[in-house]
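Q: I'm writing up a methods section and want to include an example of the input and output format. Could you take the sequence below and give the corresponding predicted C-alpha cells, formatted cleanly so I can copy it straight into the document?
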Amino acid sequence: MTLAVFFGCAFIAFGPAFALFIFTIAKDPLRVIILIAGAFFWLLSLLLSSLVWFIAVKASNAEDTSLQRGLLIFGVIFSVLLQEVFRYTYYRLLRKANEGLAAISDDDSSTISVQQMAYVAGLGFGIMSGAFSMINILSDSLGPGTVGIFGDSQYYFITSAFMTLAITLLHTFWGVVFFEGCEKSRWWVIGVVVMLHLVVSCLSLLNPLYSGSLPPVYVIMVLMAIWAFFSAGGSLSSITQLCSRGGGQDIVLLNSVH
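A: Here is the clean output for your methods example:
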C-alpha cells in the first residue's frame, strides 16, 4: 500500500511538469539550460531565505509558541519576496543573454522568444519548488507507519501532492505573466504576481485545514493559466485551431505560441 501511495503521489505532483518537460523542452538544449538555470536561481533564493529564518529562530525564545508562529509567517513572506527578486534578476540575465544571441546570429534574431524563455524559466522554478516541497513527504509515504492513526488527516499525502502540482504550475504561469510585465514595464502586473504568490503561500499555513487551502489555490491556478495563455500570445482562435488539430501537431502549435 505504501508503494502505491508513493507512486500515486509522485505522479500527481510531478506528472504534468514531467510531460511538459518531455514534450516542449527536452529536445531543445537551450531550453534545457534555461530550465536548469531557473531551478538554480530558485534554489539560491531558498538558501538565503532559509539562512535568515534559521538565524531568526536561533536568536529567539524557542519556548514562545506565538513568537515561533510569527517567525514562521515571517519566513514564508520573506521567502516569497526573495523568490520574486530572484525571478526578476533571472529575467534581467536572460534578457541580456537573449540580446547577445541576437547580436551574433546570422539573421539578427534570437533563437528563442522572451515568452518561451518565461515559460521555461517558470517551469524551472516550479520543478525545483515542487521537489523541495514533496521529496521528504514521498520518503515518509514509504513507511513505516500509518497516516491518521492518531486522529490526524488521512489525506495528508494526497493533498500534499495536489498542492505541489498547483505550486509547480503556478510558478510556470507566474513566470510567463511576470516576464510580460517586465517587458512592457507594467509594474502592476508584477505586483499582482507577487501578491498572488504571497496569498497562495500563506494559504498553506491553514493546513491541515485542507478544505480552506486547496480549493482557493486551484481557483488562482486556473485564473493564472488563462492570464498566462493570453500573455504568451494565445487567443480564442488559437484554442479553436488547437482543438481541430491532432497528435504531434498539438505540440508544434504549443511551441509556436509566442
